[in-house]
Structures are given as structure tokens and as C-alpha cells.
Amino acid sequence: MLRQWVGCARTGKAIINTASNVRRHAFVLGHHSGLHRHVHAGRRPIGGAIQERDHSDVTLTRTPILSDAQRRTIYALSTPPGKGGIGVVRVSGPDAIRVYRAVTRSVRSSAALSMREEETPTPWVAEYREIIDPGTGEKLDDGIVLFFKGPKSFTTEDIVELQVHSGRAVLTAILTALSKLHFCRPAEPGEFTRRAFEGGRMDLTQLHFLEGLRDLIEAETEAQRKIAVNGVGGTQKAKLESLRAKILDCLMYVEGFIDFGEDVGELGQEDMLENARTRAQEIIDTINSHLRDNRRGEILRSGINLAIFGPPNAGKSSLFNFLAERDVAITSPIPGTTRDVLTLTLDIGGLPVVLNDTAGLRKLTDNAIEKIGVERAGGVVEGSDVSICVLSLEEVISIVPSSDQRAGRIMLTLPADVLAHLKPHTTFLFNKADLTREVTGLSRESLEHEVRDALIRALPVPAQQKGPCVAHMWIVSLRTGEGTVEFLDGLACLLRERVAYSESMSAEDAPLITQARHRDYLESAVKFLEEFQEFPLSQIDIAAESLRYAARAIGSVSGIDVSTEDVLGAIFSSFCVGK
């Protein structure tokens, strides 16, 4: 290592080889008052006393700046930020003990820095210590400090955990104090778990377990918790391993033919290949049955995307506020109040729901901002999993004259802007029922029956063929609360039907595919299996490779045969920072 000393009043350099075991020398070449002087450090110059170095001419040595690769010790908050009883700050790496000495001290006495530099924590023993600023020594908090000696730790490295009071100011001060240590750096998302993987704490066969663990941490509803538990418990992995074993069983027939084909007659060869093709088709059918699940696993994991749409001033924002149980969206009798998409995550009937309130659908508007909002509303409805069309009943209903009863007493006129956005999963909510019953003179049950029949007649033939969810139709008054209880129960039932979820769902009934990554690999496996079926008998050796690729694709989901950095990076980077 080279260390440079730069003089201010005189120009000079001293090069010290710290790797040398011989006595160190410093050669200072300077120019001062026109005289060249050569000073041999530690020796008396000729004809004079020992000359002391003028320290005012030399700057202090700087702490070398380390790169992220050199700063192997990482830290992060491992508990959710915000107010709480306990916040845990985790530190892992070769310099964990240095962190312990730098940011903690005994509560019994204010030990000097030189004494703290000699302290060694006792592994796996909780200590009550003060948390301090390493620069000023100021007390930041006090709490429990735990030291886990590697390799008997989660990451297989030395770990220090600071269990402190979970206040925003306290946690910020402690993280800031750790950032002052030049040999530490903040952890990347999932880096603690990745180090556990790299240290042998877990292997590739536990890849599916890691994804389940992440989902379990992030679960916000009962449905998400159940799916995550299946992943952690190994139920999904067992299903995937069963598929992979069937592919390998199919490959056994092909490999047997390649190795011993000459010992089998031509008829036997065809039977062996046909047997393998039949088994491959069975595997394809099984995988396709999981692929045709309407993305229920991904939807349950990330949330059902529910869009509220309809004409202006129909009560969309009122419905949004009703479901949110607080005033989130601005409501007003002025049409076009909502201009942008409002999004909120809710728990409805134990299911995660991403609720979207949209601008009123109408083409005749001169407001440029409202036009953008209408365009965005159309995109949200198109990409939704379930959509609710909110209509003001008093604006779409009309009474048929008593002389003509062939079409029923009630007719509905649906706005053209609404008809253009109807989808198979669209359901209808007719609002402002309290303003309509006096006009029709019907009871609530009779009004609902008449409106349902009128809605079926009002839908154009293409829309009827697409099948909007007329069975789930509600008439409510969001102002008075009339019919809202039945609406909430019906909406929860509709969402469960959409994702085929029930509270008594067993592990066997749980969706196999819970992430887009899983779906991509399973689709690849199907392509390789179909490719295998197309190869003739003369290319059986190439067909065997297709089976191997199919088995590898299944293994990429469960953790077998995974070795690519891309897959690992994608999984670990989606963890929270302190995990």
C-alpha cells in the first residue's frame, strides 16, 4: 500500500512500503530557500542536531475510501419502519464486532473509547447497552444487543442485532450513525438472505421456499397467507417435483430406446416411443390445466384489480369512499370532479383487492385534463380483473306506458360510452335507489327483479354474448345506506368466484402458479414437450434433449437444476431490504 504525504509550504512526497519488514525510511525531497536537503528519517544529519519535521507542512492521513465490494459489512432495518414497540437493526459481515464496539457501550459506566475497542461480545447472550453516535459519543437510545458468531448465524457471518425503540427519529439516528462507519454500507434488498444462500445455509432446492417466505412476510389478507404457507410448507414444490419426475420417467423410455434399441424389434421400438409420447401428452394436459386457471394464483398474491367506472356523477367516488370506509375521493354534484385514477388496497372478504376509482366516461367534454382522465379510465377498465359499472338509476330508467306491457313496466337506457367498456367480468351497481322508488311505486324486491330483466334487454347482442355478470347486480342508495349490506356480501361472493377461492380451500386446491416467473417456465415446458412429440423415430436422440429441457424448465420453478444468476437475482432483489 502506498501512502502519500503532501507538503503545503514545501513540495515533497514520502513513499512508505508498509509491506516491508525492514526499518521504514522516508525520503523527503524538498526545495526551500534555494537549498536541496536530504533527510534520512530517524538519523542525525551531518553537523547538526536532530531536525524535527514541521507537521504544519503535512496534511493528516485520510481514511481510504472503500468500494462497495470492499465494504463487506452490511446493515439494514429488519422491521417495518414507523412507530412500534421494537425496531431491529441488523448488521452482518466480517466487521460486525467493530460495529458493536463503535456504536454501543455499557450502561454501567461511560467506558473510554480505548476500553471499548477491546470489548468482545459474548455470542448468543442478550446485553442491555447504550446505542451511541460513533463520532460524538452521544447517546441515541438504549436497548438489547445480540451477537451471533458465524458460521452459527442466519447469514453464516458475524451478526449484530440492535433491538431498540421503534420510533422514526430513533431509527433514523441509528442508521445515520452506522452510515458514518466507512467499512459499512446499507444492505441491498434480500442481501441477508442471499448471503445465507451463498454461505450454504440454504441451497437451490429451497428456492421455492424462499419465494414462499417472501410472500408470507408480505401477506396482508387471509388468502395471501394461505397461499404463502403452501409455498413455505412445500406443497407447491411437491406438485412441481411430481411433474418433473413424470418427465424424467418419460425420458427413461427414450434413453432406454437409445441405449438398447438394437435389441428391440421394429414393432417394440414404435411401442416404446408411443408410450413416451402418451406420457408426454398426459404431462402437457396436467400443466395446461394449471395454466388455464385465469391467473388466480397471481391475482391472489398481488391483489384482485377492481375498477369502478361509469358516466359522470353516477356515484363512483361515493362507492370508492364507501368501500374505503373514509373520504378518499372528492365528491360533488359537478360532473367531472374525478380527473385521475385513484388507487387503494383493501381487504374484502379475506381477499386482497386493488380498488381503482376512474373519471366519468363521456366523450363530449372540452376540458383537456378530463379527456386524459377518460382515456386513463378506459385503460384501467380494460386491464382490470373485475369491474363495477356504476349507474344512476334515475337517469337510465324509464317507465313504459300502461297500454304497452309487452316489454315490462321498466326500460333501461345504457350510455354508449359505458357499453363500449363492458367485459365478461363486468357487474352493475345502480345507485340512488331512494330517488327512484317513489317514481316506480314498486317495492325493493320488485324493483330489483324488474331492473334485472330490463338490463338483459338493454344489453346489445354482442354484449350479451360476452356475458356481463348480470347475476351479480345490485340496487343501492349510497347516500342512505339502503342495500349496501347485500352489496358487500354479494361483492365478496363475486370476488371469490373470480379466483375460485373458499375459506376451506385445502393445500391441494391451492393454485400452483403464483408468479409470472412460474407461468413462463411452465409454458416453456409445454413447448418442449410438444416439440418432443413432433420428432420422428430417426431423431430420437434430439427428442431426448427436448425432454431434458422440459425437466429443466420445471426445475427452474422448484429450485432443481437452477444455476443462472438472473433467476437468483430476480428473487433476492424482491425481498425487503432487511431480510
Q: Give the CATH H-level superfamily of the largest domain.
A: P-loop containing nucleotide triphosphate hydrolases
Q: How is the main sheet built?
A: 7 strands, mixed
CATH class categorisation of the largest domain: Alpha Beta
The average pLDDT score comes to: 78
Number of helices: 20
Radius of gyration: 36 Å
Separation of termini? 36 Å
Count of structural domains = 4
Low-confidence stretches: 1-61
Helicity range of the residues? 40-55%
* Class based on secondary structure composition and strand pairing: alpha/beta
Strand arrangement, largest sheet?
5-6-7-8-4-3-9
What does this structure look like?
- With 579 residues, this protein is of the alpha/beta class.
- It has helices spanning 96-103, 113-116, 168-179, 191-198, 207-218, 222-233, 235-260, 266-291, 296-302, 316-324, 368-382, 393-396, 416-419, 437-440, 444-458, 461-466, 484-499, 516-534, 540-558, 565-572, and strands spanning 27-32, 35-40, 73-77, 84-92, 104-106, 127-132, 139-148, 159-166, 184-186, 304-309, 342-348, 351-357, 386-392, 397-399, 410-412, 426-431, 473-475.
- A 7-stranded mixed sheet has the order 5-6-7-8-4-3-9.
- Strand 6 and strand 7 (139-148) form a beta hairpin.
- It starts with 26 loop residues before the first strand and ends in a 7-residue tail after the last helix.
Short description:
The protein is an alpha/beta fold and about 575 residues long. It is built from 20 helices and 17 strands.
Defining traits:
579 residues; alpha/beta; Gyrase A, domain 2; Four Helix Bundle (Hemerythrin (Met), subunit A); 4 domains; seven-stranded mixed sheet; six-stranded mixed sheet; 20 helices; flat; disordered N terminus
